[in-house]
Amino acid sequence: MYAEQLSLRLRIQTISRPRLRCTYATTPYSTPAPHASRITEADVDGARSYCSNLVQKFDSPSHVLQTFVPPQARDAYLSIRALNIELARIPDLVSNQRVGALRMQFWRDNITRTFADTPPKEPVAILLHNALTSLKSRHPGISTNVMKGWFMKVINTREQYIDNRPYTNMEALETYAENTYSTLMYLTLAALPLNSMATDHVASHIGKAVGITAVLRGLPLIAFPPPPNHHNNNSAFGGGRQGAVVLPLDVMAEAGVKEEEVFRQGAEAPGLKDAIFTIATRANDHLITAKEMLKNLQQGKDAGHDFEHEGEEGHEYAEQSSTSRSQVDDIERGFGVLMPAVPTRLWLEKLEKHDFDIFRPELRARDWRLPWKSYWAYSRRTL
């Protein structure tokens, strides 16, 4: 009886309650909302603060480097880097792969709604929408479809490795780095906007170096994850949960590395330092290539080799953009976006100094030299 009375009251309240227009989009995440969220300046300021704090906490080098990104693209930069952190943390925050897949879909839907001009009231989406609105106001008629495709590529690639599976070979690791960290740089260049084969080509090599290095830096925490609910980059190793050794299988086989021996012996596992050396060398090779290309382009010369991704979606270029003068100008305009090469180089140098012992605590510490090393590199346009 009481249940019937309660049900009746609920029905009456539902019928008599006036319909209020929502101040933000409330349709399901898989469907663009019928009207744009009412984003206020306070919302944008709050989103900017959130993204900046997130980057500072979990990706301090990117936080330092934001000062070299042109002001008109800085909101885009922060939202792009914040999204990368949100995606990277999913495997550590969810209880199983299915929940992780739902979170990935959440971000796909957020990106879809943001590019449909109906962003949800979520900090990353708000700041990205503000950046896209600014871009369109500065360049009427510009298309952002390529940027949306690149965001989806990053999310899809992150989801592919959400279970911390090892890379089948070095080429698979390079593809992962290209589809994540290189693509993050393409997105920032597009926010300037700058559509240039010269800068994209250099960014591709730098992104591959950054991505490969990120996998090395993350290896200790993935092999020895901290206890549940302790998601701190400085947590001690050995939290009791079983981890994984996410190195290319061909490199592990060649060096004689066995996962169970890494779990038992850590840095002293047979062949591990050799495997780390091989992978770090590939990352450094990409940095050297980018540095040589940059020098050639700045002198008005040819880059030295063809861009392997030319002709792919987002990498179609006008004929006139490949002239020597325009390449020099493009590199100058986009140089701030190429700066992730600096912390990557510093970390690889530190790794070499510690004899490729990936578990050394010094490798997890922030590099106090980064601000002035970055300023030095930027002021001289060198990497």
UniProtKB/TrEMBL annotation:
Keyword presence, Transit peptide: yes
GO aspect biological process, one term: mitochondrial respiratory chain complex I assembly
Chain intervals for the UniProt region annotation (Disordered): 303-327
Compositionally skewed regions (Basic and acidic residues) per UniProt: 303-318
GO CC, any one term: mitochondrial inner membrane
Swiss-Prot/TrEMBL keywords: Membrane, Mitochondrion, Mitochondrion inner membrane, Transit peptide, Ubiquinone
Keyword DNA damage tagged: no
Main location, first listed in the record: mitochondrion
Record localization: Mitochondrion inner membrane
PANTHER family: NADH DEHYDROGENASE (UBIQUINONE) COMPLEX I, ASSEMBLY FACTOR 6, PTHR21181
Protein family membership: Belongs to the NDUFAF6 family.
Protein name in the entry: NADH dehydrogenase (Ubiquinone) complex I,assembly factor
Top-level taxonomy: Eukaryota, Fungi, Dikarya, Ascomycota, Pezizomycotina
